[in-house]
Amino acid sequence: MTATTQDQTFVAEDQGLTIGRYHLASRLILGSGKYKTLDLMKSCLEASGASMVTVAIRRVNIQDRSEASFWSYIPKGMMILPNTAGCYNLPDTLRTARLARELLNTDLVKLEVLGDPQTLLPDTEVLLEATRTLVKEGFTILAYTNDDPIVARKLVDSGAAAVMPLASPIGSGQGILNPLNLRFIREIVKTVPMIVDAGVGTASDAAEAMELGVDGILMNTAIAEARDPLRMSVAMKLATQAGRLAYFSGRMARRDNAAPSSPVQGTIGVVS
Amino acid sequence: MSAMQLEINGKKETVAEGINVRALLEAKGINPNLVACELNLTILKRATLAETPLHDGDRLEIIQMIGGG
Question: Per CB distance under 8 Å, which residues of A are interface residues toward B?
């Protein structure tokens, strides 16, 4: 029972994440796409402990209104983060962000400006321009970006409320491909949260990201496409907490050689 | 009553002349509180939908939130 108390204490010590004027108790942010059913999505959102969920902005299907109930599957009290997913240029990005603000009565937006449909990698030039424009309009911008430290710095300078570099391409589940760049970004992005967004495949990827010292993780496919999404959502919650604890615990130094954990004196000797 | 042609979410549609945006949404079974509208590229405030008449040739976008990452 002592162990349980200790883990609850350590987890509770984490004050969570502040993005602009918003406070999130959990460092895990979830997407709401690709779930087999909306009931399953809701269960995963709840089980993950996430404080924030991303949504996409799309045309209403006039003929088929089956999507109209989507909102009722978002757990009460969860912050909604609209995204600009699917935008490939500045006008579409600005238009989607402004429509999202009117739709959801929020100034939060995840800016996602894609450069091409094969890689889904961000067009960071347009992203920076959109950030500058929308910051002036009072938006709280979470900027989905490449793992490029220079772009990360420019996003901070442009007024982004959070910088969100990818671990690997959207939906690829390849984990962190360039941990060195994420470390560089961590050193540059000090005044706003750094959140790893996209590419996490399994719990160890989430833990690895948190161990690098990032402030949060945004994921979708890793949970939605797991064989058992509900269990994976719990795994991600625990991995995020574990990675955070490990980061604050300070890992041991790496050595080139082995170092015994047991005393080398007093061994009982060779049987002769 | 005469009719007019609109483009709603990219599709041509014929509706009764003089209808306002809110009445159009309600006629289609769309809850105005769950969508945002853009008329000829200008975003409409939800509170003004009932006072916004539609005209022949107008382009109306009706958007909602759905699942996404």
Answer: 31-35, 38, 41, 54-60, 62, 65, 67-68, 70-71, 80, 82-83, 85, 95, 98-100, 102-104, 170-171, 198, 218-221
